[in-house]
Every structure is written in structure tokens, then in C-alpha cells.
Amino acid sequence: MASSRSVDPGQLRAAVLAISPWLQGDAPDPARAELAAAVRLSLRALAADAPGRTVEVRVPPFAAVQCVEGPRHTRGNPPNVIETDPRTWLELATGRLDWTTAVAGGRVSASGSRADLSQWLPLVRV
Q: In sequence order, which residues have a C-beta less than 8 Å from that of residue 66 and are 6 or more positions away?
């Protein structure tokens, strides 16, 4: 039986392809539902690829997931938090932007000793 956190690769690819022209700068902003689907599916894919509860990845206003093995966080603000906007997240998820550049450029807020997703990115290439 598939995990509730698993993602159909075809569904993820389709969601990302739908917003790909926008990421390339060739199209206007996508519909909110399209953007939300791409963000949510890619975050679920990350959680499936890097299971755990040590790092919380937030992409407001659409979703947040806990991932990465290590000490489990259960209360209050987690010690390892990553937050970014939807466009930056999708650029990271598709390999259009690398982790180091995103963090150095202030496009990603990453706090905590385990707040580094570079080994799991990109999630999908389109």
C-alpha cells in the first residue's frame, strides 16, 4: 500500500510542467490552484525522499512539511526551519536554482544545524 505521503511522479511532473513557463519567465503568474499543486506535491515528494521530523520546510501560503531524519521535534518552533516563497521553492525543486546560491542570496531562510536540503534537490527536472 502506498504511503499517504507518497507522490505519483507523473502527477508531480504534470504539476511542475504546468507552471514551468512562469518559472522560465515566459508566462504570466500561474493560477493559484496550479501554483499550490506544484508546491504541495513537490513538498510531499521531499518529505517522502527525506523522511523524518527534524527539519520543517515552509512555503507560505501553500504548505509546510517536516522531513529529514534525526532528533524528533514535537513542541513549539522546531530548531531547524527552512522558509521560502513559492517561486524560489519551485526553482530549487526543479534545479533552476541551487541551494547555496538561494541561501547566500537571501531567497531562503535556513536556521539550524540540519537546515540544508542540498542533498535532496532537485526533486524533479523538467
A: 47, 52, 53, 54, 55, 56, 57, 73, 78
Specify the pTM. 0.91
Termini Cα distance of the chain: 28
Q: 110 pairs with which residues across the strands?
A: 82
CA distances from 94 to 12, 32, 40, 58, 66 (A): 11, 19, 14, 17, 20
Residues 6+ apart with CB under 8 A from 92: 84, 98, 99, 102, 108, 117, 121, 122
pLDDT, one tens digit per residue, over 103-116 is 999 999 999 989 99
Buried b (16+ CB within 10 A) or exposed e, 65-100: bbbbeeeebeeeebbbbbbbebbbbbbbbbebbebe
Q: State pLDDT tens for residues 9-31.
A: 999 999 999 999 999 999 999 99
